[in-house]
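Q: what does this look like with magnesium ion bound?
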Amino acid sequence: MESIKVQGVSKRFTTKKGSVQALNSIDLAIEDKEFVTILGTSGCGKSTLLRIIGGLETASEGHVMCHGSQVTGPGPDRGMVFQQYSLFPWMTIQKNVEFGLKEKGVNKTKRIEIAKQYIDLVGLKGFEDLYPKNLSGGMQQRTALARGLANNPDVLLLDEPFGALDMQTREVMQELLLKVWQTSPKTIVMVTHDIEEAILLANRVVVMSARPGKIKDIIDVDLGKQRDYNTRLTEKFLEYKRQASNLIRTESMKVM
Ligand SMILES: Nc1ncnc2c1ncn2[C@@H]1O[C@H](COP(=O)(O)OP(=O)(O)O)[C@@H](O)[C@H]1O
Ligand SMILES: [Mg+2]
């Protein structure tokens, strides 16, 4: 079953300073429960593509289908987590994670229970009553991820969610996300400019070309489902890394 279908999507931004072609005829089909990463150099249109899938931005041409219906705006079937952990500063960690559930009308007992489950999963048990400002960046981002997961959308859209984190925290978060996806598979589309991250997490890596963003290549990542930190050291992983690096390098050179 197809989850997301991007059909002939182009995007041109027009501002006072002129216009920018951010995306050029993107076609991409994502299967249900696939983990797809979108890899590309800065400014190639990754966020724009993800925002169009999320319904936060409209395409200039083409359209996006989600489970057979055309995307015309944001919806509870598609949850987003951004690089800048957009938590509500006036709400506790518990309330932040409960937020989407409350919006959906889930009753109080149930939403407390679900929120606790995900807070636990991301390793924040005991921090429920604190406010975002009392937590480190990594912990805030774990909260944002817990909130995204607690809503249980059909499709989770992640825009460089670990981009602002230090290396160690980033690796812990990548393993956490892998664990989540292994235990309860769902469709995940994640944008990143980090080659290793893109390969470690994905079934398929969609490599974008430099602006105007097009799909340059798609790498099928055959590393099995049980992956962890050590997977990075395998021969197969290194071969994928070489392949992706070569594609990215060609694109970076075009930009310069
Ligand atoms: N709201 C906007 N208005 C004008 N230009 C934009 C807007 N959003 C993105 N762009 C431009 O579109 C291009 C792609 O941006 P973006 O999707 O953010 O790239 P990436 O996420 O790959 O770094 C860039 O040149 C960027 O400046
Ligand atoms: Mg971006």
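DSSP finds seven helices and ten strands in the chain. The pocket of adenosine-5'-diphosphate (ligand 1) is lined by residues 13, 15, 20, 22, 40, 42-48, 211 (CB under 6 Å).
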